[in-house]
Design a protein that fits this description.
The protein has 298 residues and is of the alpha/beta class. The protein contains nine helices and twelve strands. The strands form three sheets. Strands 3, 4, 5, 6, 7, 10, 11 and 12 form an eight-stranded mixed β-sheet that branches. Helix 1 packs across helix 2, helix 1 crosses helix 4 and helix 5 packs across helix 9.
């Protein structure tokens, strides 16, 4: 039994005529009659009562028609799923987003992606950049958004953009206020570092940034990333990061003077990506190119 036999049967049942069904399925009437006889022989059932005005379904034919429509619908659903998987309209994407410094366009990017690919299941994992790097290389993630510095030869990268460094300062701290803050003001101030091996890229970026300006700071390692805002609000430390959204309670954010930026990248494995991941990469690349064009005009 083949799918064409079932489709021929449904066409005859709906048209109540071999000749009209033959025209509908583009098959010669004698050949169509032969196919149905073969189907009836295989089933051991008579599906049609033939008469001068056409055909009627037998009781067995009525039951077979109901089940045949269910079977054909399932086949069409499976075929549609295959087409959607090939087009990247369905599937799964497991995306890691590094905590701490954040690229502000990441959520609009993902919102656009989910609008365009509503059938794709998007899972977000937030952790230290190094943790996500290991998860990506071990195939537990499909892609990672993180500050620049996590690339490796077995990964591909897409530059997403950059964000200005800011200092997070407790609202009762002597450096709290509005406007840019001169980096030399950090001399002797305790600067938050996580001290975690999986956040080494960020810790290194902070120390290199201050070293560039000749700032001698007192580093305060061992503060877990999620606990940094609370430590800042209690005036225990100052944190160097990108602008958080929303700004934590009891915390002021001041841009650095001179201004410096932190780049962000989208990372994925060097192998051919799934269609769903390719869709995310396409949306990310398109949005990045558009922002660059607008920046060039401005």
């Amino acid at each position: 039994m083949e799918l064409r036999h079932l489709r021929y049967f449904v066409a005859i049942a709906e048209e109540r005529s071999f000749s009209r069904a033959a025209e509908r399925v583009w098959v010669a009437q004698p050949a169509l009659s032969t196919q149905i006889r073969q189907l009836e022989a295989e089933l051991g059932l008579r599906l049609f009562e033939r008469h001068s005005r056409g055909v009627d379904l037998t009781a067995a034919g009525e039951q077979f028609l109901e089940r045949t429509r269910v079977a054909l619908a399932a086949v069409e659903t499976a075929a549609a799923t295959g087409r959607e998987l090939e087009a990247g309209l369905t599937g799964k994407v497991r995306l890691g987003i590094a905590n701490g410094p954040r690229w502000r366009h990441v959520w609009p990017l993902l919102r656009r992606f989910t609008r365009e690919r509503r059938g794709v299941e998007l899972t977000i994992v937030e952790a230290y950049g190094g943790t996500l790097w290991h998860e990506l290389r071990d195939r537990r993630l499909d892609a990672v958004v993180a500050p620049a510095g996590h690339a490796s030869p077995d990964l591909k990268t897409l530059e997403l953009g950059s964000e200005a460094w800011v200092a997070l300062i407790g609202s009762r701290h002597r450096l709290a206020g509005a406007g840019p803050l001169a980096t030399m003001a950090f001399h002797g101030e305790p600067i938050a570092l996580t001290g975690h091996r999986d956040d080494a890229v960020h810790d290194a970026a902070v120390t290199e940034l201050l070293a560039e300006f000749g700032v001698v700071a007192e580093y305060a390692p061992g503060i877990p990333g999620p606990a940094v805002p609370a430590a800042v609000a209690e005036n225990e430390v100052i944190a160097l990061t990108t602008m958080p959204d929303p700004l934590p309670a009891g915390v002021h954010a001041r841009r650095l003077e001179p201004r410096r930026t932190l780049g962000f990248e989208l990372l994925w494995r060097s192998e051919v990506p799934s269609a769903a991941l390719a869709g995310l990469l396409s949306v990310a690349a398109g949005g990045t190119n558009q922002r660059r064009a607008l920046a060039a005009v401005a």
